[in-house]
Amino acid sequence: MSLNSDLIRKYNIAGPRYTSYPTVPYWDQKLAIKDWKSSVIQAYEESKAEGISLYIHLPFCESLCTFCGCHKRITKNHKVELPYVEAVLKEWDLYLSLLGDSPKIKELHLGGGTPTFFSTSNLEKLVLGILDKSTPIADYEFSFEAHPNSTAQEQLQMLHNLGFRRVSFGIQDYDPKVQKTINRVQTFEQVKKVHDWAGEIGYTSISHDLVFGLPHQTVESIEMTIEKTNLLKPDRIAFYSYAHVPWIKGVGQRGYDEEDLPKDEAKRKLYETGKQLLARNGYIEIGMDHFALKSDSLYKAMQNNTLHRNFMGYTTQHTQLMMGLGMSAISDSWYAFAQNSKSVEEYIELVTKGHLPVFRGHLLTREDLVIRQHILNLMCRFETECGVEDYLYRNEIKKRLKPLEQDGLVMVNEDNQTIHVTETGKAMVRNICMCFDLKLHRNRPETRLFSQTV
After folding, report:
1. Hey, what domains does the chain have and what are their CATH numbers?
2. Contact predicate 61/117, CB 8 Å
3. Strand order in the sheet with 418-421
4. Residue 112 φ/ψ, nearest 5 degrees
5. Helix (H, G, I), strand (E, B), or coil: what is residue 103?
6. For residue 216, is it left (φ>0), alpha (ψ between -120 and 50) or beta?
7. How far is it, in rounded angstroms, from Cα 308 to Cα 282?
8. Distance between CA 102 and CA 136 in Å, rounded?
9. Tens digits of residue pLDDT in 29-83
10. How far apart are CA 223 and CA 274, in angstroms?
11. Interatomic CA distance for residues 106 and 135, integer angstroms
12. Peptide bond into 262 cis (omega under 30)
C-alpha cells in the first residue's frame, strides 16, 4: 500500500535505523574494559550451546564510493592486508583467552569496506585462523560482502571451500549517470559474471544490495535497475534507503549537490516502484528494506518468527553473543555493547600490546533491555506485546503511539496490549520504533544525528 503525500511529509523526520537499542549516540560511553569482559563471559556461559556470531570488519577500499557511510580506509597499497589480518587474529586470541574455551561458531560474516580487496591467500589465512580455534555448529552460516569489480573466481571458490554459502554483491544502481556521480562504476556484464560464478560454484544464497534515493535517480532508472536485477534472480535483495549524513561522514558524501537528491514523495516513489517490480517477480518484503524469494532462508525465518536483527542487519541466526573483530567493529553481549577503535593504526597498536581495542560502549539497564526487545519485535515481526503490567506502555509510549494509530500505521489491541504494524505502517517502522525510544525523547539531540526515515 503506497503512502500518501501528507503522511510522507508528516513522518519524514530524522530517526535511527535501530540496529541496536540504545542507538550509538545514546550509549553512556562509560563502559570499563573489566565490565565488558564480564559481560562477554556471562553471555558466553549462558549461550554456549547455541554458539556465537562473529563479524569481521575489513575496512580497505581502493576507491571512495561517495554514497558510503561505512568506516573505511581508501588505499591502493595492498601491503596493508597482512598486518591487518594478523591484528584481527591477535584480537581473536585475546577473546579466546578470556573465554578459556574453543567456541562454537554459528555465524561468521566478513564485512567492510571491501572484503574482496584482500587477496585470496590473505582471506584464507584470516578465515583459517578463526576456524582453527573454533568449531562451526551444524546449521552455521558463513557470509561475506563483495565488490563485483574486485571479486575473483578463486576468492569465491576458496571461501566456498571453507564453508561460505552466502555472498552479498554491492550493486547500488545500474544507471551510468548515477554510477559516475557516486563513483561506483560497474557494468551489468561484470555483475553477471561474478553472480554466475557464485551460482556455478555452489553458493546457495546470493544477495544484491540496491540503494534508492541516490543522486540523479529517477523512476525510469530504478525500473531499469530492478529489471536487470530480475534477469539474474538473486535469492535476496537489500533495497536500502540512501542515508545522507554528510555532517557525520564528511567530504565523501558532498561530491554532489543537495538538489541532485530525490526527496520526500519523489524518493518514496522510487521505493514503491522498486517494491512493486520485485513483488511481480516473486520477491517478498522481509522486515525493513529487504526482500527474498520464498526459497531463501530469510523468507523462511520470517515465516517461522526466527528473523533476527543486529549490527549486521537482518539475519536468520540468533545468538546472544555477537563479537565484532577489526577496526570500528561493534560487539553485542545482549547486556552490553562495545565498539573498537575507528583508527586502523590505533587498533593494530592496541591488540599488538595485548589490549582489547574497545574505545566506547554501553551497559544496558533493565529499562534498556525491555525497550530493546520491543524494538527488535517491531523490526523483525512488525508487532510486539507490551503486557498489562508493562509500565512503559501504560505511560509515555502509549501516548506517542496514539497519532500513529489514528493515521493507520499501527493497530493497538487494548485487551492484550499488542501493537501491530499495518501494511501502510511498515514503511514507517522506524517512526513506530521511535515511540518506544525513551532515551531519544528524554534527550532530544541538538545537532543532526540520523538520516531521514523516508
Report:
1. 1-22+364-454 (1.10.10.920), 26-325 (3.80.30.20)
2. yes
3. 383-385, 418-421, 410-413
4. -160, -160
5. coil
6. left
7. 22
8. 10
9. 778 899 999 999 999 999 998 999 999 999 999 998 888 878 899 999 999 999 9
10. 7
11. 9
12. no
pLDDT at 9 over 90: no
What pLDDT score was predicted for residue 224? 97
Residue showing cell 546457495? 204
Note whether 179 and 145 are within 8 A (CB).
no
Question: Hey, which bits of 333-399 come out as E strands?
Answer: 336-340, 358-363, 383-385
- List C-alpha distances in Å: 33 to 29, 337, 358: 11, 11, 7
Answer yes or no: are the C-beta atoms of 404 and 410 closer than 8 Å.
Answer: yes
The grid coordinates of residue 253 equal 558524501
Closest CA to 347 of 332, 365, 331, 325: 325
Q: Which of 139, 16, 7, 9 lies closest to 449 in space, CA to CA?
A: 16
Peptide bond into 113 cis (omega under 30): yes
Residue 352 CB: number of other CB atoms within 10 A?
14
